[in-house]
Design goal:
The protein is an alpha+beta fold. The protein is built from 3 helices and 5 strands; from the N terminus they run αβββαββα. A 5-stranded mixed β-sheet has the order 1-2-3-4-5.
Length: 114
């Protein structure tokens, strides 16, 4: 049985997938991403993005360097842009993204990876 935070994390990935599917038309949730080494990221837009989703019920979250470094390495191998998605499970359930500046500039320019 899943905990409340696990259910919220699953909902987070579904919410990200839906929003990105509406933009890119192709977006998938990576099953088993949290418990399998060979399944990087939680959500991916093929040939575009690799997204790691982190959820918290707290008012703050510490962003760990190792999360960002791991995500960047995994995205680099697949020629994808890495995004860390953070969802705060308060009354608003808002989602924020962490992206390195060079990756943001490439996205804004429409630069393809690969």
């Amino acid at each position: 049985m899943k905990t409340k935070i696990q259910e919220s994390s699953d909902q987070h990935a579904r919410q990200v997938k839906k929003a990105l599917y509406d933009i890119y038309g192709d977006c998938v949730i990576q099953p088993g991403s949290g418990n399998q080494v060979d399944k990087p990221g939680d959500v991916r837009v093929p040939k575009k993005l690799l997204i790691e989703c982190k959820t918290t019920a707290a008012e703050s979250m510490i962003v760990k360097w190792r999360w960002l470094d791991k995500l960047q390495r995994e995205a680099f191998v697949e020629h994808l842009c890495p995004l860390l998605s953070i969802r705060f499970c308060n009354d608003e359930y808002r989602i924020f993204y962490v992206i390195e500046d060079v990756d943001l500039y490439d996205l804004l320019r429409g630069k393809e990876r690969g």
